[in-house]
Amino acid sequence: FQNFNKIFRLLYVNSDTVLSIKAEHNDNVRLINKQNFEIYKSMLRPENNILRLSCDSIITKENIPIIISPGDCAVIAVAGIDKNDNKRFIILIHSGFTGAILDIINKTINIAKAFYKFNNSNLSAFVFPYIAGKNYLKGHEDTRVALVKSNLEWHRFLTKLKNGVGVDFGKKLESDLTKAGISFQTSSIDTFTANSKNLLFSQTYLRQHNLDESKRFAVGVCLDNYS
User: Fold this and answer.
1) Average pLDDT of span 122-129
2) What region does 51 belong to: left with phi over 0, alpha with psi -120 to 50, or beta?
3) Which of 55, 60, 65, 124 has its CA 20 to 30 A from that of 21?
4) Can you spell out the DSSP letters for 179-192?
5) 37 contacts: CB under 8 Å, gap ≥ 6
6) Strand partners, 58
7) How many CB atoms lie within 10 A of CB 79?
């Protein structure tokens, strides 16, 4: 909690509880408001001030610090304003190969629209570091590979490699943002290459080199106290 809190202190955010996404590698989306946040706290009981919530996407208008420590998956932060009350909201999406297949970006945005009023063109997003397709090798026996091979939209995100197929799921997610009309920026950092230089973290790199898991990096987001 103290390490996570360093991020939020730099953003002048003080909170007695950090909401941590416990990624499911699925398309489970949760909308957090004041009422259900208190219910989650009473049910799940934060450990060391960290409330771990199983999901892959969170939508909220609350000034709740949200944290996630990814392995190689993409983390996407989306910000917007609800025209119903002119209050800002934030969305944090975790997605790897499976999330991209399940169209988690569009699903999350559609759920947000069920509660908030906004146009996609007024949203802005940032894509944090993820593993490049050339380093994300999947064998031909992977049923997900067979699924996307039959989908023409996925063909430009697949690369034939010596032992299987390289899957550029991050580029597919960026394509989904573009198709949805959401402007975004990206770090353009490959976690695999960064880990080879002792920067950031890549679960794939560590497994391929039979190394023990090192410290992960964390992505933290929060609406400020003036929203």
Assistant:
1) 98
2) beta
3) 124
4) HTT-EEEE---BHH
5) 19, 62, 64
6) 30, 92
7) 16
Q: What is the pLDDT of residues 192-204, one digit of tens each?
A: 999 999 999 999 9
Residue 88: pLDDT band (50, 70, 90) is: very high
Exposed/middle/buried for 65, CB within 10 Å: 0-12, 13-18, 19+?
buried
Could you write out the DSSP letters of every residue in 156-172?
GGEEEETTEEEE-HHHH
Q: Which amino acid is at 77?
A: A
- Structure tokens of 227? 């929203």
The tokens describing 101, both together, are 């297949």
For residues 201, 147, 107, 188, the Cα torsion angle rounded to the nearest 10 degrees is: 30
Q: Could you give the CA distance from residue 104 to residue 98 in angstroms, rounded to a whole number?
A: 9
The first and second tokens of residue 52, run together, are 């771990």
Cα dihedral across residues 188, 2, 94, 34: positive or negative = negative
Containing 3, the helix (H) or strand (E) segment is helix 2-10
What pLDDT is stored for residue 225 in this prediction?
56
Tally: H helices and E strands in the chain: 8, 13
Cα dihedral 57→25→101→104 (10° resolution): -10
